[in-house]
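Please review this one:
***
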Amino acid sequence: MCVATNIVRHRLFEALLDINPRAMRQTGDSERSGSDSSDANFDPTEDEISSHTPQTLPQNSRAYDKLTVFQAAPLVWKDEDDNLHAVETLDFDREREILTESMKEARRTKGNEVELKFETANTERLGAFLAASETQVLHFTCHGIPNHLAIEDGTGGAQFLSADDLRDFMSAGGGKLLFVFVSACYSRTAGEAFLEAGVPHVVCCKHDEPLMDLAAQEFSRNFYLALACGMNLRRSFELGKKGVNVCPQIPNAKEETGKFLLLPEDGNHDVPIFFTKPQSRSYDGVKPSYSPRIIPQPPEVFVGREMEIYEVLQNLQHSRLVRLKGCPGSGKAGVAAAVARYVSGREGTYSLFDQVIWLPLICKQ
């Protein structure tokens, strides 16, 4: 986690805007009184880049919107010979915390509310999302390899979704998305697939570059805070990159900053993303749908156990009881906790489980 204080972040935020924060409009895309001529003359009704170009809500409307976050954390992948290989686990808990903190800050400072909904990235849940058309803004976090995104197959394994399949899948949904952020390495081809499917604005990573997790987290923190405060997409993107560049915990921060792309590169991104149309309220407040209940966290040093977690999940598909055996201190409880947390975060995916409850074992001496 970056150790930059909130004071530093607020100063960075104000410096980029070059405004008095109290004079900032609640919604809209002209946040600075000293905007350049291109910003001052910008009118979404005249400069539309596609049929998706949004119109901001009236000044007296309550600013409320939604963001759907798809996360994929497959445990293993299969090679051509059906051999299993472990997949490095991404820190989705930290990403949830960061996005939730950004939305709470926007609500506290501007009164704007953005509802967060977290989903498991597999074809079933993506299809349900496209069919419902509840939100215009999609955030996608997963592992990426050149020309493919690694989503989940519903059983703990990886499904490699090609850019062509992604384009066709998203096109079938009717092309109603306004913005997509693909937070994955080598994701330019995926970003271009979203563009070809009709999404007018996409943020992704260069196709030939891996991306540090911390850089993606810091970018998301500043980027979504700016969007939720009513800034337009172009300025929010620049603020996201500034946040990466000044984070002292990121080595080669300037290099990491240059990996983020806003597509299309020649497009007009001086448009708002949130608060562009009235939204029905689902609840009163900003909170994630994910709840870890009372399941304990795995040990801090818990690396390389993905294969064991996957094996337990496969056995649970066929058996009502799975017993973990091993020498004292070998990590049995840690594996059990990891399995429980993995399933609890995917309640819409694992239909075998109605609820996950942690019951600690107490042994009498």
